[in-house]
Amino acid sequence: MAYPKKSETKTIVGALIWIAAIAALLLLVRSRLDDNAILKRLSGYFGKQKRSIELVSHQYEMLGFGDPIFLIDGETTTRVGNVSFIDFGEGYEEYRIGDTKKATATLYGNAPVLTPGDYLKVHKTDQSVEWVVRTMMPPEMREQIGKLITDAWKVNQDELVAMFQPLIEESIADAGKIIQEDFKNAIENHREQIDKLSQRYQDELLKQRIVPLVRDEIWPIVQEESRPLAETIGQEIWQEVSVWRFGWRYIYDRSPLPEKKLTEKEFNRFVESKAVPILENHLEDFIDVQKEMLSRISNNEKVKETFSESIHEVSRDPEFRELVASIVQEVLVDNQRLKQTLRSKWQSPEAKRAMARANRRLDPTVTEIGATLFGSTKTAITPQFARVLRSKVLHKDERWLTLHTKAIGNRDEELANRIIASNEAHSDSHLDQLPMFTELESSEYPMPAAPPIENVLHKRADQE
User: Mind telling me which residue stretches traverse the membrane in this protein (predicted)?
Assistant: First the structure.
């Protein structure tokens, strides 16, 4: 009788021990499944077989190798697969990202059973600067940074104002003087163009629109509102007029007697002693009349329409816009005298000393703002900054797909019915294919960004 060798015996015993350990582990996992959701998900993931499925689209979709597939069920988001192959056509096998109508996906064991009408939606993240700002500075972070700036300003306000107010005032005064001088020069340089535009506007706007508007709409309002007050004041002034005083002085001025201008003197006396007090007594009435006139004129539909059309027409006039742009370019943008003056002012020893003092005062606040936005050597990278890094630097989380199935109840049944009808009309469509559709609006990546990454330098410093 032949007996197994000693080495073979050890191998058999070792294998039996491993089989027993695995069996015990399986029994332990099964006994814990009802009490532990994570173990249940892991058991379903490893216990069910992965499967491949073809993805098809009637239009080109931007896909990349490894793009994740998510299943969103209410508030729960689960990754159930990924893009495993992209068909770019013959000769382009080495490409890993691009536009395609066909691809292959691997569905994990936790993916639901597919039924006719199920489909995928292709999503993309927003790549704009606005998204970066919105992600890096959500409302609560904006409020936190705003508080840091407000607190720093309260503490350092007096010192900062004392340091920079003389520089700012001198800069504004010098810049204003230069701009005023060069603006006059720019106007003279473009005088011919300005006169040409003025003549055209006088013909097209003033004569054809503004003058008829004043005659037909504005002047009747002025007359109607001002007439009662004018009649009242005129009556009061007339009652104070002395025909005798004016009459004999007028006759005297016409005579050959030596002293003249008695009528003028009487008129001046009358204005100062009689007319002016009457007008002063009606000052509030003048103001009320003006308010009423302005209110009626500004609310007149014809006036508003005419001025709006005129302003709109002028603002869109290519010649006017070119003229304004040229003047602004000469006076502000290309003004070397202005640039040199401001540069000299803000590079002076006084300005450099003020900057250095301000930096020392505000450095703690700036550092704290940086730590709030990006993290620090003592904490970690913030989740917001991690999300931006993954998208903009590592080009992660830019695309993903969502699975919409009847089993979960998250699909659009109207779309599903159209898919089923299309599949019935084409004999080559079957359950081994999933149609893809583009989600037109950009949206946020459904899974949270990776946890904050502990700073490596900080770890090394702790270890040392």
Answer: 12-29
> Structure tokens of 29?
């996992």
Tokens of 90: 């013959």
CA distance 435 to 117: 9
Rg (CA), the chain: 43
Cα-flanking dihedrals φ and ψ of residue 268, to 5°? -65, -40
Q: How large is the angle between the packed helices 318-328 and 191-201, nearest 10 degrees?
A: 150
* Closest of 246, 313, 303, 316 to residue 274, by C-alpha: 246
CA distance 116 to 121: 16
* Other Cβ atoms closer than 10 A to 86: 23
**Structure-block tokens of residue 340:** 């040199």
Q: Report the C-alpha gap between 394 and 379 in whole angstroms.
A: 22
Cα 145 to Cα 94, 274, 367: the distances in Å are 47, 66, 11
Q: What is the pLDDT of residues 399-450, one digit of tens each?
A: 889 999 988 888 888 888 888 888 776 655 556 788 999 887 877 888 654 4
Which residues are CB-neighbours of 401 under 8 A, at least 6 positions away?
67, 68, 69, 70, 83, 105, 120, 121, 122, 123, 436
pLDDT digits (tens, 9 = 90+) for 36-68: 555 455 555 554 578 889 998 888 888 888 899
Give the domain ranges of the chain: 48-136+380-463, 190-316
Cα separation, 251 vs 193, whole angstroms: 58
Q: Burial level of 225, CB count in 10 A (0-12/13-18/19+)?
A: buried
**CB of 145 within 8 A of CB of 372?**
yes
Distance between CA atoms of residues 116 and 426, nearest Å: 13
Q: Where are the alpha helices (DSSP H) in 282-426?
A: 283-299, 301-315, 318-328, 336-346, 349-374, 383-388, 413-425
Dihedral-angle region of residue 74 (phi above 0 means left; psi in -120 to 50 means alpha; beta otherwise):
left
> If we measure between CA atoms, which residue out of 430, 425, 438 comes closest to residue 117?
430
Chain center to CA of 284: 47
The structure's pTM equals 0.52
Backbone angles phi, psi at 51, to 5 degrees: -145, 150
Q: CB burial class (10 A; 0-12, 13-18, 19+) of residue 167? A: middle
Rounded Cα distance, 301 and 298, in Å: 8
